[in-house]
Design a protein that fits this description.
alpha+beta, about 100 residues, 2 helices, globular, five-stranded antiparallel sheet, about 25% helix, single chain
Length: about 100
Amino acid sequence: MLNIVALQGRLAADPEQRTTQNGTPVTSFSLAVQRNIKSGDEYPTDWIDCVAWKGTAEFICKYFQKGQLMWYRATLKRAKKILRGLRAARKWLKEHPPVQMKWEV
């Protein structure tokens, strides 16, 4: 199986670096990725939250800032925050059914 995602976009804000309890560097950033097909008069933009670890995290914080074009290759993972919140959201989801979504890469 293969789980590779390649993104090219502009940084929405300066990357934020922090350190885990055991000293591992972690950087969070958001990429604005423009689609190739117009919707009306504009190209829609997807805002994608990314996380980098260790040497990659340090490199991104040192050399990138808001607005710069960036190419990022990573793997796709589900966010734990979403999984933890599902129990609390079940009632709301019954009242507001989700829009059908699929992932395309």
